[in-house]
Amino acid sequence: MTKYAQNIENSIRDFLFKEGLLKEKIIVPDLKFGFQFTFPLFTESSEEKGQLMVIYQPLNKNFLIISIATQISEYHTDILMNSSDKKNQFFIDIKKIILLKNLFFRLDIDNDCYEISDQIFIDPDKPLSKNGFYKTIRKLYNVQVYCNLLLMEYCAEKLDPEEIKKMQGIDTNIGSNLYI
Q1: Coil, helix or strand for 70?
Q2: Is the model's pTM score more than 0.85?
Q3: Is residue 104 included in any domain, yes or no?
Q4: Residues 6+ apart with CB under 8 A from 147
Q5: CATH classification of the domain holding 106
Q6: CA 70 and chain centroid, separation
Q7: Is the omega angle on the peptide bond into residue 40 within 30 degrees of 0, that is, cis?
Q8: Domain count, the chain
Q9: Is the residue at 73 inside a domain?
Q10: CB-hemisphere CA count at 13 Å for 63?
Q11: In which domain, by residue range, is 90 found?
Q12: Does the pLDDT of residue 73 top 70, yes or no?
């Protein structure tokens, strides 16, 4: 095993810690290692919160999995269920965007949740690129935000504007600048 392969866990921990994203280590027997983190990072005074994500390396595998899961609220599920095929169509539409972005997914329509993930293959002779690592995280996050916006569209006729503003993690302003 090369020094890069041995240090992958430390590199990822450092990437997440230095950016203030690291939440906790995941200790599961069938994982070589795993971390839970929040992305993006908002200031403590901000009302906005990042999305919980995980990264892990399965035992005896040469790749990392980065994943973000979403549980649709009962409030939104009730709105989707009030229309004949709205819920099924919503899940079909999110499946399309996830496939278009070349990502992996798990849909659980019966339990109103879905998970979006991607894999990064580890080259034992090269260090993991911090830039490539964060591009994958941003891609997953952006697709998840798109799915949230799609959910808002599906529920728009039943939501009042104040309820939309209260929805955590969704910026109803035009644009998506993390630095302002």
Answers
A1: strand
A2: no
A3: yes
A4: 70, 94, 97, 114, 116
A5: 3.30.1460.10
A6: 8
A7: yes
A8: 1
A9: yes
A10: 7
A11: 3-166
A12: yes
